[in-house]
Design a protein that fits this description.
The complex is a heterodimer of chains A (144) and B (195).
Chain A lengths: L2 H17 L4 E7 L2 E5 L2 E3 L6 E2 L4 E4 L4 E6 L4 E4 L4 E10 L4 E16 L2 H5 L4 E4 L3 E5 L3 E6 L2
Parallel strand pairs in A: 9-10
Antiparallel strand pairs in A: 1-4, 1-6, 2-3, 2-5, 5-8, 6-7, 7-9, 8-9, 9-12, 10-11
Chain B lengths: L2 H17 L2 E5 L9 E6 L2 E7 L4 E4 L6 E3 L6 H8 L6 E5 L15 H10 L6 E6 L6 H21 L7 E5 L20 E6 L1
Classes of the chains: A alpha+beta (144), B alpha+beta (195).
Protein name (chain A): FecR protein domain-containing protein
InterPro entries (chain A): FecR (IPR006860)
Keywords (chain A): Signal
Chain lengths: 144, 195
Amino acid sequence: MKPAMMVMLGTALIAQSAMAAEIGRIKRSMGTASVERGKAKLAPVPGFQLQSGDRLVTGRDGQMSLTFIDDTRFSVGPNSSIAVDQFDYNRTTQAGNFVTRVNRGSLAVVSGQIAKSKQDAMKVRTPTSLLGVRGTRFIVEVPK
Amino acid sequence: MSPACLAPLMLAGLLVGCATPSLTLLPSEEGKQGAVAVIEENGVARETVVSELNSRTNLSGRPRTRSVDPKLSARQRALLDTLPPPPVRLTLYFREGTTQLTSESEPGLDFLKKEIAGRPGAEVQVTGYTDTLGSDEDNDRLSQRRAEEVLAALADQGLDRDMMSAVGRGERELRVRTDDGVREPANRRVVVTVR
């Protein structure tokens, strides 16, 4: 391999590992529940490290609770499919962007530092709307 | 309004609540005000700020907010009950130029261990802060290094390294407000957050 290519490959690997940084952890899960990452279905055991792009999926008896590194907290109800589409967070400045998509089911949120960093830095998308979170506790429900 | 009118109205409210996506806004755990804005609805940009606490707003069609207090459904209560507990924070002070805790801060270690044990899947953030002496960039570096030193010291005391990360916040969030370029021991601290 040419050195130039190796450098490029190295850069790509570094970029990937930076992207795969931990954004939060699973605290509890009950019943049928999984974290979907690409094509993989992973078991949400306590301490499981979440990444941006992960999808939180529960069955009829499922439930998951989790915290993010900006202090945001989630509780995911049964029959839910929720994607963390974007989670960029600078831990030094505590600013960032956080986009969650509730495709179906229910999600309780206590927002954290990202929501405080600037107006609508934290957004929640449902199939019919886009919400700008201005710092609070709320529930989003998307019935089937 | 007569009781006979109330029933159909309540029923209508329930139907709206169940059939379309909805937002339920609650007070913060400290009882404080917050807000969520509907900034887009069915592809149309808008700015409907929901700030009425204990209210439900439909998220399809024109957003309308109704009071729900105190009638959360059993499912909603279950959802709130399973939220993880709020993070706890502990401020640690060290003997000048060392990673040895001051005697006042020593009991903090036991407190941290207890909190971590009580929170399955715990994550611990060690955040360093400086006073305002020196440049912002130097203070960011200094606080990061301080946090890393303390992380290593906590690991030596038996805390799991894999659950910890170090962050430097420099001279942001001063504990004691001072002008720039001021020595202030109370601002030179490390805060440990357990989530």
